[in-house]
Amino acid sequence: MKFKQILAVLSVGCLMLSCKQEVEEPKQFTLLKNDRTGIDFKNEVTSTSEFNILEFLYFYNGGGVSIGDINNDGLEDIFFTSNQSANKLYLNKGNFQFEDITDEAGVAGSSNWSTGSTMADVNGDGWLDIYVSAVGDYKVAKGKNELFINQGDGTFLESGESYGLDYIGFSTQAAFFDYDKDGDLDMYLLNHAVKNAEVFKPSVNRKKADPDGDKIFESLLAQGEKRFIDATSKTGIYSSNLGFGLGLAISDINNDNWPDIYISNDFTENDYLYINNQDGTFSEELEQRIQHTSRYSMGNVIADINNDQSMDIVTTDMLPSDPKIWRKSLGEDKSEVFQTKKRFGYNDQYVRNTLQMNLGNGQFGDISLITESFATDWSWSPLIFDMDNDGLQDLHISNGIYKRPNDLDFINYVTSNTEANNSAKEIQAQQIRDLPTLKIPNYAGINKGSMSLVESAKKLGLDQPSYSNGSAYADLDNDGDLDLVLNNTNQEAFIYENKADSVNGFLKVQLKGPELNPFGVGAKVYVNGQLRENHNTRGFQSSVSYRLHFGLGATNQPINVKVQWPNGAIQNVEADGNQLVVINYSGSGKSENLEEVEASKILRLEESPLDYTHRENDFNDFDNEYLIPRKYSTEGPALAIGDVNGDGLDDAYVGGAINQPGQLWIQNVDGTFKKRITPNFDQLARAEDTDAAFFDADKDGDLDLYVVSGGNEYATTQIFSFDRLFLNDGQGNFRFSPGALRQIGGQGKVVTHADIDNDGDQDLFVGLNTVARAYGTQPTHHLLINPGNGNYVSQPNQISLKKDMGMINDAQWTDLDNDGDLDLLFTGEWNGIRFLENKGNGQLEEVGLSGLEFASGLWYSLEVVDVNNDGFLDVIAGNIGLNTKLKASTDEPVRLYLGDFDKNGQTDPIVFHYQEGKETPFASRDELIKQVSIFKKLHSNYLDYSGLSSAEELLGNTADIDVKEVNKLSSTVFINKGDKTFESIKLPIEAQLSNISDIVAEDINGDDVLDLVLLGNDFSYRNDYGKIDAKPITTLLGNGDGSFNYLNDTHLNTAESWGEYRKGEVITIGDQRFILALRNNDTPSLISLN
Amino acid sequence: MKRNFLILSLFSLLFVACDSGEKSITIPADVYHQSMDKLSDVIVHDIFSPPVASRIYAYPSIAMYEILAQNNAEYKTLSGQLTELESIPTPEEEVSYELAALEAFLILGQKLIFSEDRIESYKTELYTELQTGVNKSYFNASLVYGQQVADHIWAWADKDNYKQTRTYPKFTVTDDPTRWQPTPPGYFEAIEPHWTQIRPFAIDSSTQFVPERPTAFDMNPKSQFYKELMEVYTVGNTLNEEQKEIASFWDCNPYVMNQTGHIMGSTKKITPGGHWIGIIKIACQKTESNPMKSAEAYALTSIALADAFISCWDEKFRSNLIRPETLINEHIDEEWVPLLQTPPFPEYTSGHSVISNAAAVALTSIFGDDFAFDDTTEEKYGLPVRSFTSFVDASEEAAISRLYGGIHYMPAIENGVTQGRALGNYLVNKIELRNESLAQSKD
Fold first, then answer.
1. Which domain holds residue B335?
2. Chain B residues with CB inside 8 Å of A201's CB?
3. Is A200's Cβ below 8 Å from some Cβ in B?
4. Which of B114, B174, B188 has its CB closest to that of A937?
5. Do B166 and A933 lie within an 8 Å CB cutoff?
6. Which of A422, A599, A789, B222 is 20 to 30 Å apart from A971, CA to CA?
7. Does residue B42 lie in a domain region?
8. Which residues make Cβ contacts (< 8 Å) with residue A757, sequence separation at least 6?
9. Looking at B132, B160, B188, which one is the last position of a domain?
10. B267 in any annotated domain
11. Count of domains in chain B?
12. Is the confidence metric ipTM above 0.95 for this complex?
């Protein structure tokens, strides 16, 4: 009775509870408990005094997951590796019921430190085998890699030795693929080193083979033998002890239908991108194709995330996204460490994830910053799959580490506080105890198209805190959506059931490949503009099912499925959606070339006619100003184009950096160019040219040359910091005119000329960007009124400029207000787009333009043209772009605080930005302290600092210091409505991947509407900002209404044309028009316009 | 002793904050030693580099000395003897010079370090003990006077160019094969490249004791330089137990980075200067020196240490010589790691050699040249006690330890010893601490 009452009460309570719960929206993913699934797997890792994180650096890397149908019953089965205990195989009984068949199957394994696993049909009998990697013979870790051959009856026979794959070493993971296209599956074995992870050795050491290095094993199945031989040395891959291999992916990166290899290496060593030479060898080409990688690269995945039929690459790292965690975690390499690594021959690596977007030609631009997928904390396994069947593949990243070694308090304080007289073992034990733990949710980004990933872990129900390592997806319940499995450390594995909205259809494709490759490994399948490659080693220590999954969106049309087999043969199949189609290799498909990318034929890269290479000198601005976001010693080259010798042909002046003379190239009638010897240029070689202009300064009817000096090295009063005017003798012979200018020193950036006082001669504006050793403070710009003879020193009617014009990167004289005189439009970093109205006589007065009030940016460039043919001049403004760590809006601007916080006579530039809604210093605490040591007094440790709540807490009262605010980072068109009001239109996302250093507006397709060629990239940033390198050249077609559409420009962005562009100008050579585009520290590029 | 003190304190609790208490206070010398230890602890915690630490020891020590010397006819002021130091103010009321000296010491120490709360809480606890039974206004007046002197010394310290040097350029690493470059495993930037511009305390200028030129860089295996490089390598590979012990004993690296894979940690120790500050305490306690004599030892030795760092750093960033570890890894043995972690600044001359020998000369001038002692300074960092027959004996061992440690070539040690001694001798001759007539009559 009583019992019943209690029950009743309980059930009422339950009802109420469930009512309450129903208020919460049901989430797309449900974490299924072990009583539902029968999966109670947990990768339990026990630290002992013999074997622990200090004895073995990868003690908390965790285990892997492999999914595949091992008994060919149509249901996907799951295999987990356990570091220290038996690995487990769970047979799928349907309806999310699984049965542990490890013991019957004989796949528990004998190693006591297992790592990754891969399912593949190694012997080509149509049954999936399992290969398990392990750490063998290291301290207490005993074991070897094992190959479990599926007997077809639910049992497996360990056959590593007979197959020659019983490798003993430090293996992370294997991938099976047919690299030599002999029809059988060969194996790449990813291994890692264990010692001296962060002691830099010259990178040439990667050429020294080491027994512990990566390996390629060649299968002899096609040759009639069931065994593998070590083919490492003949394939040409690196197999050294520099590699800390944690990520392995096979993919056709360059669309030649041969499998290439991407390897992510933890620590110092570069990642590797091996391009298949189609002859059994590989060439490592990462540095030609990828500009920077993750620093501590962990797992990786390759897939086509943007449906452009070329394969993109995601690598993971460990940058936290939560500012509180970030502030107390070890971050980016200090500047000097970064430089040291480069001197040892390593590439640029940043502590963050990368999402390398394939431009279609095997050249990559990292879009992790614009997609905000760069910071997912201590990350392991990235997976790209379509979670919601909308046809756009999403990104999931597992993360978390059981003991967190990058905690700065631990590094600087905790470890040193151990009792002095303890034994080494006691100290070790205490340190391990003291390592902080932090359980965090995994990352899930929903792809919304247009390079937008929306973090949705919580919304999707994927936000349970965990220490997750390996992961794999598969449709476990055959309901048409992909479920997710994660292997966790010291926590039960996660089995997430996906209940994707059935509005969206799906198609699953199972390939039956040729003999010896029954699962069709290496085939490509195209559906509705989507591409899947049939390679299953993905993420981290894991492999996914060979069943390929496509989301179809809301379509219910019959679908064309196109398969390209590894031998190139194409098969087309029509299929209805919402089913699994099995496609058998027919052996009859014709081979065709699928790599065609729609390329604009209007613009072509041609060979530069100038035998000139800009040579930047080595100078490190950060030695003088530690916290400035970027350096200003690499602003060149300068470029000016004009006919200097009156023969009707365009000639060019190209500037030099310090110790490189500028060069004048005279065009010959045959379209070639000849360098004109100009002694004065050589004599002034120590000046650095940042801009140049041809105009008639002395009114003698020829073009004279003004050259702006910069370089950020010399004092403002040093002779080589002065701008220079060269007078033309009419034949293109230039003579330095030392008396013509007063001493215009400083960091000049732009010169623009016009007759602003209507007296028939050319007046000048010279804008400067930074102030040497006082970044952000007001530079002295120059307005030079021409007395008529080009002798700018004697200025009859001196016009003074405003003092608060800020940093200037570009300026243009233009009649923006249609009143018949030329006004000055200028912009720059930490500045707006600003307008000085000419009062008719050259007197300038700043006037606010409606629509430009909230346009404070990190601007680089301006172009004033009429983009919508309405008779009013519009403004195209090049900004830093959106693919940067900085994010800005009017509500959450980026701020530059300028003050002498330690009263030592130097202005300290402190940049704050918003992270997850909180204003936080961009620099780490350690870096801030290097600039302003008293900041260290404000907080007793990093934990205390991590709670920083405002800029004032760090900087004191900010009321009396100079604060600059930036609220717009996108490159934008401002449409002139004619009444001093402007309407802004953001340039397309493709134009926001890099900064825009220069803009060329031309009608490139002959529709009488201006189109744009945008030049960018800027490698001058400190390594914590990271160099801007995602894309150098972008083309946009004008629509006539002020908006622009992206025009495929892949063919313009090649390994040869990559670089950091500074200037581009139209030049006519013969009767053809081109853009001559100059890169810093490189050769010019020539782009034909018609 | 301590127990009595406690009982006394308990008893006096009744009279706390009482205006009627005594207008006298006795502060045993150990309180000053203990305060100096506290300062060392915070320097270690806050990770100050050796030259900066030497500056942190010097100013508080000078303040302490100047106040006590005011009240002791045997001792002379340092004003007029140290560059730009003017006479400290005199008290306006009746004060305890001993308390004022302690107060000035702690105020300046607190200003110079980062973790101010650590000194603050120490002081609070200490003063609670000290003020019992003492006349309140007398106690407070002493603190006020201590503060005045601290302000005076701080104003002087503030003009030593330390602040300005914070804004000077970092050391530029180039491809020059002879030039210093960052060393594993931390690859830290070069510490204090402009320390030569710090105002010296008593030497004429940072360039007064420029050592001989280092051996010319030459990677020809027959060259003298190469031989000296190989000596570091060979000695490092054949160290006996005692040599290892000597190297570790004098490591004195404030921040040794330990790295295993992703796990990074640090071992923090006192600086070379801090080690000698510890030896001063040992010498004072062995001789049962009173606060005045202790202050004398601290002041003179900390000046010697600070000027020795200025002199040494001047040479380091003149020669900018590359460390043996870099060359050995590049040319001889890629895997070679020195016993001690290479500290982050150029090689020539050896800092420990210069400063230890300067300090030894200073201490010898106070305590004599046959002063045997057991050096327990490193015990709290888990290292054993070592015994020395004299300060010079210790300083010579400190010098040669750098060869055993694999971080210096022999000339940096030998010429560093010469540099340090010359500097030390100059200082003890120049600085007059005692009124000779009075001192002699007492001794």
1. 199-442
2. 329, 334
3. yes
4. B114
5. yes
6. A599
7. yes
8. A763, A785, A797, A841, A842
9. B160
10. yes
11. 2
12. no
